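Case study B.
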Amino acid sequence: MRILLVEDNRRLSAALKASLVDAGYAVDAAYDGMEGEELAISTPYDAIVLDVLLPRKDGLAVCRSLRVARVNTPILMLTARDTVQDRVRGLDSGADDYLVKPFALSELLARLRALWRREAPSKEPALMAGDLRLDPATRDVARAGQRIELTARLFALLEYLMRHPNQILTREQIEGHLWSYDFEATSNVVDVYMRRLRLRIDDPFSVKLLETVRGVGYRLRVPADS
Amino acid sequence: MRILLVEDNRRLSAALKASLVDAGYAVDAAYDGMEGEELAISTPYDAIVLDVLLPRKDGLAVCRSLRVARVNTPILMLTARDTVQDRVRGLDSGADDYLVKPFALSELLARLRALWRREAPSKEPALMAGDLRLDPATRDVARAGQRIELTARLFALLEYLMRHPNQILTREQIEGHLWSYDFEATSNVVDVYMRRLRLRIDDPFSVKLLETVRGVGYRLRVPADS
DNA sequence: CGGCGTTTGTCATCCGCGTGTCATCTGGCT
DNA sequence: AGCCAGATGACACGCGGATGACAAACGCCG
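Model:
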C-alpha cells in the first residue's frame, strides 16, 4: 500500500511517516501543496493524507484540483479545527474523510483502513429519475442531457430526494437530514430550497418531477416510463 | 429487525440487550467505538444505538465515519448530558435522534419505532378493495389502474373506510375518527365528504363501492370477486 | 487583511385550494 | 301530500405553500 503524506510540519510529518512505515505502508512525503499535487498526479497511490493548511497551495485546493484531474485516490484530510463548516468544505472539495488534530495514530490507521474498505462500493452508480441524472461521485447533475449547476445545499437536497424516489418526505425529515440542527422554531428553509431546486430542474422542462403534497411534504416523482 | 448496540457499560448493555431481545429484535452488542464501527460497516442493521462516550473511538466520531462511509442506517445516540451543544453536535455528526440518560426503556423503544417510521415509511402493504388500491406509504390511490388525486381529508376518509371494509360506519364514528372534535352542533361534513369521495372514486366507474345505509351510516362494499 | 460576488437563511406578502357551512333539492316512505 | 334523510351545489374563510426580496455569512481574490 502506497501512501502519500502531505504535511508541512516537518516533525509531525516525520513522526507520521515513521508510524505508517511501521504499520507496513510505503510512504512518500511532500511538504507543500504544489509538491503534493504533482506527486499525486504522477504516482499511483492507494491513499493520500492531506493537511489543510499548507504552503503554496492549501489542502482544499489541492483536493479540488486532483478531483478535477480525475485522480480518484482516496483522500484523508487533516485539519486543526472542526466545525460543520470545515467538514462540509472538506468533503465538498472531494475529500473522502476528515480527521481533526490532534488525533490518535490508531485513529488515522483505522480511517485509512476504512477508506480502503469502502473503496469498492464507491463506484456507486449515478442516481436516475426519469431523464434526471445525479452522480454522487462526480457531483454532476443533468436533465435531458443538459448539465445543471447546483450549490452544495441544493445538491444535497436533490440527492436526498433521489435516494427516496416516489416517497413523500416531510419537512422535518428533510430539515433533519440536511440541516441537522434543533429546529423548534418554524422556518421555511425547506420551502425556499424546494423553490430554488424547482427553478433549476423543473421549470425549464415540461415534465415536472418535484411534487408538493399539501399538508404532508414533498416528493420526487419518477415517471413510470419505459 | 437487527439492532446494533454500542455501549461500553457492560451492565447497561446487557440490560438493554435483554430488553430489546425481549421486544423481539435481534441484537448485536459492541463494547467500543472501533468494534461498533466495523460491525456497522460490515453488517446491515436496521438501527444502531450508539453511546457517545466510548473507549477507542467516541460515538460522534463513529457516527461521522459511518455517514461518510455511506452507511445510512438510522442512528440513535445515547448521551449523559443534554445541552443544545451536545444535541447539535450529535445531530451534526449524522445521528438521527438523541436520547438522554437516564431514559425509560419504553422511550427507547418508541424512538426506535419512530426512526423506522421516518426512514422506511412502513412497508405496510397497500389496501385493496376490488379494483381500488390505496397505498398508505406513498399516498397513492388508484382505481382500475387510473391514478386518483385526493386531498388530505379525502385520503384519510378513504383510508378509514378501507380499513373497515364491508362494515357500516356511522357518521359519529367517522367524524370522531377524522375530525376528532366534539361536535355538538349538527354538521353535515361527513355527507359532504362522502359526496366528494364519490365524485372521484365512484362516479367515473360503473361499479359503485360506496354505499349509503339510510338511517345508519356508510359502508365501503368490497366486491366478492375472483 | 479587505473588498466583492455568491450562497444561505429569514421574512413579509401573495395566492390558490382545501375545508366546512349553508341553503336547497331529491326521492323514498308513510 | 308531507316528511325526513341524505344528496348536491355554491360560497367564504383561512391555512399552507409559493414567491420575491433582503441581510448576513461565507469563499475567493488580490
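The two ends of chain B are 35 Å apart (CA to CA). The remaining cases will be described in the next quarterly update.
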